[in-house]
Design a protein that fits this description.
404 residues; elongated
Length: 404
Amino acid sequence: MNWRAVGTIYAKELRDLLRDRRTLVSTIVIPTFIMPALMLVVVKTASTIVSKARAEIPRIMVIGGDDSPGIRAELEKTGKFRLERASGDWKSLISNKRVRAAVEIPAGFERALGSGSAPAITLYDYQGELKSGLASEQLRTFFTGLRSRATDKLLAERGLPASIARPFEVTQKNVAPPEKVGGNLLGGFVPYFLIFLCLTGAMYPAMDLTAGEKERGTMETLLCCPASRTAIVLGKFLTVVTGSLASVAFSLISLVFSLLMIGSTIGAATKGMGPAGEMTPTIDPLGILGVLAMVLPIAVLFSAVVFAVCLFAKSAKEAQSYVTPLVFVIIIPCGIGLLPGIDLNLHLAFVPIANVSLVCKEMLSGVWHWGYIAVIFGSTALYAAAALALAVAMFKREGVIFRT
C-alpha cells in the first residue's frame, strides 16, 4: 500500500471538500449553530410555557356540594382557583379546555367530615394536558390539606396528639453523585445526538466524492493517476471520516456550551422536587472522552456504508435518495439509549449502533463496563472494516464506477 499516494489523495479531496459550501453547512454550520439554537429555543419555550401554566389561575367546576358551602367558600378563599358555575356538560368543557378540572363533592360531605366518616372526593381532569394536570394537582393538594386539618381537629377533640395519625414520616434522599444524575438525565440524549450527526456529517462528503464526481465527469481523470484503486478509496474514505468526525466535534463543543447556558433552566425545573432536585446534575468529563472514543468506530462504519451506497448512484440527487433511508434505519437502534429500563448486556453489545448508544449512556454516568466496552469497540470496528472492504471491492468494479 502506497500511503503517500493515500495522503496526497486525502489532501486533495479535503481541499475540494472545504471549498464546497453545502458540505461546510452540513458539517460545521448546522451542528455548531443551528442544532444547539433549536435545542435552546425548545428548552426556553418549554420553560416559559410551564411557568405561565403554573402562574395561571385555573378555571374549575364544583359538581354537587350544595350542602357543603364551607368547602366551596374555602376553595374560593385560597385564591388559587376560579370557580365556574356548575354545568351539565362539564365533561365536554374539560375536554375542550374551557374548564381545567372539576371536583365532585358528595352530598353531606361537610357534615360527615366533622364526624370523621366523609365520603370520597372525586377529581376530574384532562389526562396528559399540562394545565389540566396542574389544576388537578392543586385540587388534590387542597383536599389533602383539608383532610389533615380535619384529622388533627378530631384528634384534638379526643385529647389525642396529632402525631398518632402520622406515627412516622417518609423522607427521600438522593445517594447518586451529580455525574450519575446528569448521566441518567442526558446520557441517552447525548449519544443519540452525536451518532445521528456521525451519519449526517458523512452523507454530503460521500455523495460529493462519489456520485458528485461521476456527475461532474472528474472520476475518470482521477482514475488515470498512478495511484491504485485501493489508495484512491482510502483517500476518499478518510475525507468522509474527517467530515463525520468534524461534525461530531463541532456539535459536541456547541452542545457543552448549550448545556452550560441552560443549566439554570434545568436547575429551575428540578427545584422543589425534594433532595433529588436540589443537586445540579453534571456529566462525568471522562465520560465525554469515552463517548468520543466510541464514536470513532461508528464514524468509520457510517462513512464506509454511506461511501459504498453512494458508489451505486449516477448523480448526487440519486445518491441522496439512496442514503436518506439510512437516517430512518438508525433511529430505532440509536433511540434505545433513550428508553428507560434497558440495561447493557452481552447480547446487546453485538447490536450495531444500539450497543454504542447504551455504553455511552453508562460512561456519561461514570459507569465503566470495561468488558462490554472492549466487545462493543471491537465489534463495531469489525463491522466498519467489513463495510470498508465492501467499498474497496465495489470501487474496483468498472460497472459500478462508470455507471451512468
